[in-house]
Every structure is written in structure tokens, then in C-alpha cells.
Amino acid sequence: MAVTIKDVAREAEVSVATVSRALNGRVNVAPEVRSHVQAVAARLRYIPHSAARSLITRRTQTIGALLPDMHGEFFSELIRGIDRAARAKGYHLLLSSSHGDADETATALQAMLGRVDGLLIMSPYADPGFIEEHLPETLPSILLNPVHGHTRLPALAVDNRKGAYVMTRHLVNCGHRDIAFIAGPKGNLDAEERLQGHLDALHELLPGASEQVVAGDFSEESGYRAGSQIARLQRLPHALFAANDSMAIGCLFALNEAGLRVPADIALAGFDDIPTARFTQPPLTTVRVRIADLGGRALDRLVAAVAAKESGHRLPPHRIQMLDPELVLRSSCGMHEHRSAGTDAHEPVRTTRKRVRNGSDTRMRSTPVKPKTR
Amino acid sequence: MAVTIKDVAREAEVSVATVSRALNGRVNVAPEVRSHVQAVAARLRYIPHSAARSLITRRTQTIGALLPDMHGEFFSELIRGIDRAARAKGYHLLLSSSHGDADETATALQAMLGRVDGLLIMSPYADPGFIEEHLPETLPSILLNPVHGHTRLPALAVDNRKGAYVMTRHLVNCGHRDIAFIAGPKGNLDAEERLQGHLDALHELLPGASEQVVAGDFSEESGYRAGSQIARLQRLPHALFAANDSMAIGCLFALNEAGLRVPADIALAGFDDIPTARFTQPPLTTVRVRIADLGGRALDRLVAAVAAKESGHRLPPHRIQMLDPELVLRSSCGMHEHRSAGTDAHEPVRTTRKRVRNGSDTRMRSTPVKPKTR
DNA sequence: GGACCGACTGTAAACGTTTGCAGGCGGCTT
DNA sequence: AAGCCGCCTGCAAACGTTTACAGTCGGTCC
User: Fold this and answer.
1) Residues in chain A within 8 Å Cβ distance of B84
2) CB pairs under 8 A between A and B
């Protein structure tokens, strides 16, 4: 049916071996033969059968991405980063997302196993036991956003703790002394790390301050509930730090409804910098995660691992690489009313600022910008 | 290296043929033999080599998705729809997105060719010439959001025209007589269809009304510019209809800056229902596109085409299938001030309303809700 | 002029599966 | 008791590539 290498060989009056060599850019094929073969292949619209090739070469030129059920900008940015990097390296991307539970994730993983050279895994269920159970030792894999205890796999993660720490420090620097935290779901690692970062900063910078943690689950509704609850308190906190932007936005609704003005009556900050954060009233101060970068770097590292395996080299030691998030200062934190952001300038890590398109953002990076590798 | 079917056969003391039949659920294998083989395969952690299988079966169980450079919710929803449907049908998803120009798209397409059973194409460059040039006749494919003249391929598209028509009709029903339109980029099909739908409604419902079309390019900035320009007019239109939400939001900023109140001074509507639309002040009336549905249906149809091809059936005639968008009524259109939404009830198509979570949305569907197939 | 060498090309094996075909074996029918 | 039939199993070919190895051919060196 389809045209194979044999058809090309017959038509070009050479052997299949020569066709293969000519088309794959091997040396040892006469230039005129090569161009002739290429011409014939193009004329016949020859498409190599990648399965046959994979069978003999034992590589698929495909990496798999196993992702959780995600929405919006976070998902699209992550994919963009992975996809771009994959194409740059000549790999295809096999995607499996939207897994609701551990079983689904396991099934999806199993289904990918024969078909990929490496695996990028981002999953709340990918704990060491799960990995041990379902992932062959020999398949190069990278974990994204894990820190699920320790696994044998290398990992890349956003430094949630540092991000939350820096935000809380910023709030303190703005003059807020009484800071409440709206937490994410119990058992969610991101949520717990953010809480921890907040508490660390609190204890360190405001010794003796009481911990005020309100429950939430990352949903807008839970933010709304937390906001209403807080608005009813006798003694209002100075500032609210929500573990993600969605909750911050829900909270903002509740505060508005209660007649409280942000940031005049109470300051507010979020985490993630979802696009909507720029458009709330007032615009939301938050923590930005460079998501596309996260995906791209993960892929680059995975490809390196695949290459290392094939050339028989020992893989470099499994490291967990942390990506620093950056503070995005808008007006909801009240910094312009209490103290200028300059207060943060005494922090030990170097900071950079730049004006961006919107005009109302001020970004601060907590570490020097690294030059892009490659 | 890896464990193959032969290893399983040797270990289970049967032939490879029996292993194959046992594992693939063929009939004609004794129950006890089957379970024994399964046990051995599991113990050995046997993973079938999918390339070898593809080679002989001539199917990859993979469909490719060729997508343009997209951001945010639209992208993630589309992928979600496709991914879910693919998994339900037992197909893998090979993704290639973020293509900036026709050459890049062609390269990505070529790279997919040997590896997929079918192709889902959404690309501004996928015109009939491009298709003819790069896509083999024999590969089942479906176009998403095209209507690029006519191609030999079946297609699924959002009915931009109808959506814009219905929105303009709604604005007219709200009492607005003087409606300006902020257009999308020239040459963009979505943009042109939306403009056309608006103009159709205008001419039909307000005969003799003058066309007021302001240029834009779908970016927030262009919406802002359009808004400033309109705010400076001697005679303000009653309503503004932006060809997408981003421009509507930019425009809203400009109107606010100019001291105009929405909807009291001027009504505003958008298109797409991006998440941010719920959070603007006032919340934005817009047109919702059920994107995940679009992706899911496209995949279902593609799989049907693949199956048809394999069973040798003639494919059903290539149809373009239109998906109706739905009106999302919030307060920016001023409907509650001029006329109640009930005015729309005389429209010929059936409408349904429901309260949604947010409490401030009223959705109207312009056609009856179809039961989910399967 | 013969041996050797280098550049190129062809032959054939191998990759891991699926599946058509044939054969074995037990039980049932006549 | 012989034949038949149906269930189950094994043998071996085939899928389309890549690549080790062998071979051809013309030229160069002694």
C-alpha cells in the first residue's frame, strides 16, 4: 500500500541499503547517487515507517509527558516550554494529562511505557512507592514539582517555600505586622511548602507573632469563604497571604462584599501570577513562577539523561533542581501606602527590577538571572 | 536487554504465538494457560515493544495534534478535550504546538507523518494548497476551525458568525441602537467571521444603521487604543462589541480612564469568555465557546474516520460541522438597565438558562442541549 | 603489471511482534 | 471402533528498516 524503502530502491535502481544511507545522511554514498535517491524519494512521497526504524534502532525519538489535571495558563505554559524544547532537540512529545487519581495515572503510565525514550512526570501521586511499582528502572525519567520525600529520580521543582518566604518578608517590609495565611489543601505538597515558607518568614522576622492560618483548598470558593470568615473577625489582620491566586481572588470578592477596601483596610497577596491577577481591583501582588522555563529545562535534562544512557555513560548524580520564583509587586499589598519597595533592598540576594508592558508591575527576582543554557 | 515476548514464552513454557494470543485477549487460548502467561508476563515486567507491533499491524494507536501557538485557557481546554477523548478511545496523543509560521508547521507535520494513524489540524496556515502539498491523501485528518475555502478534509468549527450575530441581536434587544464593533486582525478568519456576523445582525435588525468598525488586532493594547479613540468621539455609541475578550478588557481600561461608566454610559461586550471576563468591573458579557467539546468531538470524528479507513468502508461525505457558541450574560451589556433579557425570548431558536456557580452568570444556549454521545 | 587501497554499493541478518496455517489430541457420533 | 470435529497450540513468515560484512571497481604505488 504505502511506499516503502524498497519501492524507492527499485525506482532509483539502487539497493535499499543505499537508499537508507542516502536519506539518513551517512557518509560513503556518492553525491550524485544521494541526490538522485532524494529526488526519487520526494517524487514517490516516501515516508519512512518510524515503527520499523524504532524496532531496529531501539529508540523512538519520543518523550512522554505525564501530567495531572491542570487548567489555564499554567498548563499551556508548561506544555509550551516542553514542546519547544522537545522540537529543538528533535524529539516528539507524547502527552497524557488530566489524571484524576493514582490508578488513572498508573494506567496512563503503563500505556506509554513501550513508546517513549524518556518520561517527564508531574503528578501528585508519583510518590516513591508509585514510582517503584510502575516505572522501569531503565527508563530515564524526570520528576516535576515533587519533593515527595526522596526518590531515585532526578527532579525539578519550583521553590514554593522560598517564594512564600520572600512574599511574607515583603509584607513585613511593607509594615504589616499581623499577617494571616489562607492555606491550600491538606496533603498537597505545593500548599504545604508555601505554608512552611510563610511560617518560616513569620517566625524569623516577627518573633513571637501568632500564626493565623485559615483553611482553604486552592479553589476560588474556599478563598471566598476564608475572606468572609476573616472579615467577621473582631480584630482584622493587616495583611492576607493566600497560598494561590484563585483563593486570593475569591477572598477579594468576600472582602469587597464586606465593605473592606484592599489595600487600605487590609493588604492581600497571592501566589502563581495567573493572568487574572493583573485585572483584579486592585491588581494582585503575587509570586510568579516561570512555568515554560520549568518545562523546557526539565525536557533538556531528560534528553541529556537519555543520551547518557545510550552512550553508556553513567548518569550524573540525581539532583533536585530548584527554580526560584519571583515577586510581582502590584498594588494589593499596599506597599506604596506603608513603605516603598525600597525597603526590600536590604535583602541579601540581588534583586532586579524592570518595567513591563502593563506599567503597573514591578518584578523582583530573588537571584541573578541565569543565562539560558544553550 | 529488555524482556521480550520470547523471554515470556520460554519462562512460561509455551510458544510466542500463545503468549501473544493470551496477552491480547484472543479467543482460542485455554483459560489456565492464559492466566499463567499473564502471571509470568507480570512477574517479568514484560512491556510489549509497540514499534514491533505497529510494524506488523500497521497502526500506531496514536493520533497527532498539530496546533498553533496558543495561550491560556483556550489551549488547555482544547487539549483536555482531545486528550480525554483519545484516552477513552484507546489512542495516544502526539502533540506539536506553537508553530509560528507555515514552514514550521510543515516541518512539524512531516515529522509526524510516519507516526500517527490520524491527524487533527488547527492551523492558520492549513489552507487547501498547504494541505495538498504536505498531507498524504491516505491519512485520515480533521481540520479544526478552518473554513479556509474548501478542502477535501472534514472540519469542525466554532460558529463565530452565529455567535457574533446573536450577541449583536442581544445588544439590540437591550435597547442599544448605535453599536460600534472593535475588529480583530485583517486576514484572521475568526475575526472576519465575527465581524460578518455582527454586520449581518446590524443590517437585518437595524436597517439603515451605519457601520462603525474600529480596527484592532485581538491584543489588549489594541482594545485599549480603540477604547481611547471611541471615548474621544463627539457622539458616543450606545454599545461596543469587541471581537474578543482581550480587546474588550483593554477597551474597558480606556473607558474607565476616560471617566466613562460601563454599562451606564456605554455598554460593552466581548467574545470568547476567557476566565478573566468574570472578574472585570463590571463583569463582561461575552460569547462562550465550548472548547473542550470542540476538541473531544474532533477526536471522536477522527477516530471514526480511522476506523472507517481500516475496515475499508468509504468515509462518510466530508462535512463541516459547526459548533454553536453560547451567550454569557453578565452586567457589562447593560441589559438589566434597559430591558430584561426576556426580550431575547422571541428568538426563533430555543434557549435555556441556568444559574451557575458564580451566581452572576446567565447562560443562554442558542440550540437545544444535545445528549453526550456515548 | 600486479598488489593494494579507498570509495562506494549490495547482500542479508536482525529487531519483536502478529497471524495464517497446520497439526495434535480428546471426545462424541455413528 | 473408526471417523470426525473442535479446541487449542506451535511453526514460520511477514512487516520495513538499519547496518555489519563482503564485494566491486578504478586508480596508485612499487
Assistant:
1) 98
2) 129
